[in-house]
Amino acid sequence: MPAPASDRAPAIFDLWKWSWVAAMVVGVLTWGLMFYAAWRFRRSSKNLVPVQTRYNLPLEIFYTIAPILMVIVFFFHTVNTQNTVLEMKDDPDLVVDVVGQQWSWTFNYSEQGEGGTTPYVVGTTADRPKLVLPVDRTVEFRLHSPDVIHSFMIDAFLMKMDVIPGRVNEFQATPTKVGEFRGKCFELCGVYHSRMLFDVEVVSGAEYDAYLAELQENPDNVAKAPVLGGSAVNTQPGLDDGDAEGDHQ
Ligand SMILES: [Cu+2]
User: Fold this and answer.
1) Is the peptide bond before 105 cis (omega within 30 degrees of 0)?
2) Quick one: which of 193, 188, 156 has its CA closest to 173?
3) Using one digit for the tens of pLDDT, what is the confidence trace for 62-106?
């Protein structure tokens, strides 16, 4: 597991860790009893047939109830973790509209440009995009797809969410560590699915503001409103003029 790098990630990390601990305890106990029984009740003489037990009510009740209890405990912790991870504040510090399109990503820094414009970057299969995020600011991710189902995940945030055409899935997270991370599509979405990689850079607030300013120097990276995909993505300036951009499918 990558080290958790968002405020939501530790909850997931804990759920994952303790699920493994619980599974190991149950596993060791079960294997232990199996080996013990195999050894303790092994055939001791060639002619002797061991006692044939058909029913043991207390034991049967036990092995019905024990797994049900385990499922209840796992369910309880899963729901709790899910509630923590999916909690939405009313006033996130910034919104990033993410578009998963066959086969790359568009990142819109929604309404964060001058005069409420939206700086954005579009990746291609040949040229993977970079997502820059400010540390310690709450980001709301809104996920859009113009074509098929994708799945958005920044590895170190330890959670992914499906990107579904016709609906907008949302979650919030606050990056807690400055550094470089990786992201990709986690849903087999077509022939170049494996190219749906992106880089993530978590930087200080000041560096983030500087990055947005720099992005806006190129008019090709500024839109009046978030670029949400479909034909719009493929007809953005700089992408459809058949030049060095090259191999976008
Ligand atoms: Cu995809």
Assistant:
1) no
2) 156
3) 999 999 999 999 999 999 999 999 999 999 999 999 999 988 999
| Tokens linked to 169 | 């899935």
pLDDT tens profile 111-140: 999 999 999 999 988 899 999 999 999 999
Instruction: Tell me the C-alpha distance between 27 and 39, whole Å.
Output: 18
Secondary structure E strands in the chain: 94-101, 104-109, 118-122, 130-134, 139-144, 150-154, 159-163, 169-173, 179-185, 197-203, 222-223
Residue type, 146: P
CA 188 – ligand 1 centroid, Å: 6
- Output the pLDDT for position 238: 41
> How many Å lie between the centroid of ligand 1 and the Cα of residue 18?
31
Cα distance from N-terminal residue to C-terminal residue, the chain = 33
CA 100 to ligand 1 center in whole angstroms: 6
Q: How far is the CA of 147 from the centre of ligand 1 (A)?
A: 10
Whole-number Å distance, alpha carbon 86 to ligand 1 midpoint, is 22
Kindly report the average pLDDT of the chain as a whole number: 89
Domains and CATH numbers, the chain: 9-86 (1.10.287), 94-234 (2.60.40.420)
